[in-house]
Amino acid sequence: MKKGGILNAELNAGLSRLGHGDLVVVADCGLPIPPGVPVVDLALVHGVPRFVDVLDALLRDAVFQECIAATEAAGTEADGWLADRFPERRAVSHEELKALSADARLFVRTGEATAFANAVLVCGVPF
Description:
28% of the residues lie in helices and 21% in strands. By secondary structure, it is α/β, with parallel strands linked by helices. The chain has a six-stranded mixed beta sheet with strand order 2-5-1-6-3-4. Helix 3 links the parallel strand 3 and strand 4 (90-92). The longest helix is centred in the middle third of the chain and has 11 residues, at 51-61. It is globular, with a radius of gyration of 13 Å. The mean pLDDT is 97.
């Protein structure tokens, strides 16, 4: 029995398979899931779990060297969440972000219903 950290077995397994440079998508409940990308679907109902709660849990459990978000998120509540955690992030169009998600090693779907609450995280290393 784990004593802390992420308890979801599928999410733990997905995180354990990641390596340096791999992409992880943390998505709201509306972002299309690309075919063939492993998905951990945490969505229960609109708003549960929140994007920011899932993001914070991931940041406590894994190392990410970069965050990529949609330019359309600028000025939104989601942009504020990302700015607090990644002051320097790369911006691409929402269409580019969806295209990038096809290369992800892991897609984590939240119940978030806030527009543009999506991020592509690039895995780093802890050393």
